[in-house]
Amino acid sequence: MGVSENYKSIIQEIGSIRPERPPVLIAVSKYQPQAKVRDGLAGGVLHFGENRVQEGSEKFKDLGIAGKDFILHHIGPVQSSHIRKYPGIFSYVHGLGSKKILEELLSRMEREKWELKYFLQVNLTGEDSKSGFSKEDAISLLKNKSDLFGEYCKLEGLMTMGPSSGDPEITRTVFRELANIRKEFLPEGKLSMGMSGDYRIAIEEGSDYLRIGTAIFGERE
Ligand SMILES: *Cc1c(COP(=O)(O)O)cnc(C)c1O
Questions:
Q1: Cβ partners under 8 Å of residue 200, min gap 6
Q2: What is the tens place of the pLDDT at every residue in 74-121?
Q3: Residue ranges lining ligand 1, Cβ < 6 Å
Q4: What does each C-alpha distance from 116 to 29, 108, 184, 212 come to in angstroms?
């Protein structure tokens, strides 16, 4: 099936699992050629995800106006060198995992007057291969809300990744734990969780943003 057929069938599935408050579907186009992004745009995709900032900027810069024709999400761990490349192209960031980077992000976006929403990544599986704050560090950050919001740069919510094993029970436990942290410490915040292998569980557990790559675009190059 083509990109737009895959996208539409996932949108339909979302509607059948949780019609009352469907999550945003981010089509993760990392390592995919621009031709497939164009197919997605033609098929009604609005939100795209890239994990390499430079590659993402180049792929999207001549496809329209950022924030209007497409909305671009950076989904990988945020590094210092990425931050200056966000203005003009990226609208969301999903992998904020360090306090120092958070301070840099806030001050840069305020200076450049670029509106950006970010998610704090929480590592709830304890796997070393995954970045993000520990649960305890995330909670202590969430207790000082004024440090998390600028005029332009605002905390949108919490992000996590399920276990690499894909074990459905552990996945559900992890997603539920993120939802509980949100409920207690950031009730107005959103949840970014769910990828190609675990998005159905994420929808059931209340996700607001799904990050789906291979199930839409096929295997990466
Ligand atoms: C690559 C990636 C995705 C998409 O993964 P798929 O399994 O292809 O759906 C989602 N989130 C993050 C953080 C990723 O790095």
A1: 13, 17, 194
A2: 999 999 999 999 999 999 999 999 999 999 999 999 999 999 999 999
A3: 28, 30, 51, 75-76, 161, 195-197, 211-215
A4: 20, 11, 24, 21
Nearest residue to 212 (alpha-carbon basis) of 17, 67, 32: 32
Q: Which atom of ligand 1 is nearest to the CA of 215?
A: 9
Q: Does the reported pTM lie above 0.90?
A: yes
The dihedral built from the CA positions of residue 54, 57, 59 and 62, taken in this order, carries a sign that is: negative
DSSP H or E stretch at residue 60: helix 53-60
> E-strand spans in the chain?
24-28, 47-50, 71-74, 90-96, 116-121, 153-159, 190-192, 209-212
Nearest CA to ligand 1 atom 1: 213
pLDDT digits (tens, 9 = 90+) for 43-74: 999 999 999 999 999 999 999 999 999 999 99
- The atom number, within ligand 1, closest to the CA of 28 reads 4
CA-nearest residue for atom 11, ligand 1, is 211
Cα–Cα distance between 92 and 67 in angstroms, integer? 10
Domain 3-217: give its CATH code.
3.20.20.10
